[in-house]
């Protein structure tokens, strides 16, 4: 439920957009679907607060939906604050979940993941192609300030990695 009740409840307490987005990402990364309930009032209207919350979530999905819709799960599904999905074209999505008050970091490290040598990486919501480097078995992706400002939001950011090196951990 978006609120505390399955049905309409005057002045219900609604979950934060961050909580809903994080739950959505976690469920999709594991191959699931998310059905979100919002109870209408006696007139069949959705509460204003619920509509506002759905609009916040919709804004995030408008930028990051590519990493959610029509994707497949990728083992190990989640590593710390990063969840993984795979697009039909083979691209890997790494969705970094931001804590309350956290800004998009300048570098995101992905453990045990190796992009193909000719892979491109971009931050959804930004046109910038990102620089990345191998750090042993890990990959570090640098997010320049301009890209972080373009894609900034309060919930999560999604990286699109065009191709992964065969035989590595995140193959799905």
Low-confidence stretches: none
Query: Can you give the helix content as a percent range?
Result: 10-25%
Instruction: Give the strand line-up of the largest sheet.
Output: 1-2-3-8-5
Mean pLDDT value: 91
In angstroms, what is the radius of gyration? 17 Å
What oligomeric state best describes the polypeptide chains here? Answer: single chain
Compute the separation of the termini in Å: 30 Å
Instruction: Give a count of the beta strands, DSSP E runs of length 2 or more.
Output: 8
Outline type: elongated
Order of helices and strands: HHEEEEEEEHE
Determine the strand fraction and express it as a percent band: 15-25%
Q: Structural class, please?
A: alpha+beta
Main beta sheet = 5 strands, antiparallel
The total count of helices amounts to: 3
Report on this model:
The mean pLDDT is 91. 22% of the residues lie in helices and 24% in strands. It starts with 16 loop residues before the first helix and ends in an 11-residue tail after the last strand. It is elongated. Helix 1 packs across helix 2 (48-64). By secondary structure, the chain is of the alpha+beta class. A hairpin with a 5-residue loop joins strand 2 and strand 3. It has helices at 17-29, 48-64, 145-151, and strands at residues 72-79, 82-86, 92-97, 107-110, 121-123, 131-135, 138-142, 156-161.
């Amino acid at each position: 439920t978006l609120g505390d009740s399955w049905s309409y409840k005057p002045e219900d307490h609604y979950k934060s957009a961050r909580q809903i987005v994080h739950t959505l990402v976690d469920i999709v990364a594991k191959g699931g679907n998310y059905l979100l309930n919002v109870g209408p009032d006696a007139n069949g209207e959705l509460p204003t607060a619920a509509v506002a919350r759905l609009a916040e979530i919709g804004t995030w999905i408008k930028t990051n939906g590519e990493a959610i819709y029509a994707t497949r799960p990728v083992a190990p599904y989640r590593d710390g604050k990063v969840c993984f999905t795979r697009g039909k074209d083979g691209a890997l999505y790494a969705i970094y979940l931001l804590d309350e008050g956290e800004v998009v970091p300048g570098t995101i490290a992905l453990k045990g993941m190796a992009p193909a040598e000719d892979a491109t990486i971009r931050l959804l919501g930004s046109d910038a192609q990102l620089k990345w480097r191998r750090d042993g078995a890990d990959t570090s992706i640098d997010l320049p300030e301009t890209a972080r400002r373009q894609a900034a939001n309060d919930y999560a950011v999604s990286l699109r990695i065009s191709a992964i090196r065969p035989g590595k951990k995140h193959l799905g």
